[in-house]
Amino acid sequence: MRAVKVCILLAVMFLSSHAQIASRESDKARVLSLENAWNEAEKHKDVKALDALLSPSFAYTDSEGSFMTKLQFLASIMASNYHPEQIVNENMSAQLYDHAVVVTGIYREEGKEKGKPYIHRGRFTDTWIQENGGWYCAASQETLITR
User: Left, alpha or beta for 45 (phi > 0: left; psi -120 to 50: alpha)?
Assistant: First the structure.
């Protein structure tokens, strides 16, 4: 009888562990899809969608080393001289922690700024946090890749 109880306990522990692993992988996949949603929202200057993706305390460091709060970042997206035409990520990797996911990758952005075409390629690190059942980006940093 004792052996049966031990087997049941081990089975419950295994299934619980397996469910947690599946849930964690689901969280990583969710955050990676939010990264792509961010690109689309930025490309279309959809500040409402971006606002929903970013934590109220969002901190952003751009490729030139300038720091922006959430409000400053959203205002920069709406600038009349900023016209992104394509923003894509590649080689994204997500590392999951208790209630956070750190995403690293490479981005490529093409568009026009101040009437001139540009192509930027850089590395980024985004830190996403889980709050109230949702995932929000709390911090983002990018660095241009020079040729």
Answer: left
For residue 76, which amino acid is it? S
pLDDT surpasses 90 at 13:
no
The neighbour count for residue 145, using CB atoms within 10 Å, is 12
Write the pLDDT tens digit of every residue in 96-114. Answer: 999 999 999 999 999 998 8
pLDDT at 80 exceeding the cut of 60:
yes
Beta pairing partners, 124: 105, 142
Say which CATH number the domain at 24 has.
3.10.450.50
The total domain count for the chain is: 1
Distance CA 129, CA 131 (A): 6
Alpha carbon of residue 26 to chain centroid: 14
Sheet containing strand 116-131, strands side by side: 67-69, 54-61, 134-144, 116-131, 100-113, 82-96
* Whole-prediction pTM: 0.81
Whether residue 7 has pLDDT greater than 90: no
Q: Where are the beta strands (DSSP E) in 39-81?
A: 54-61, 67-69
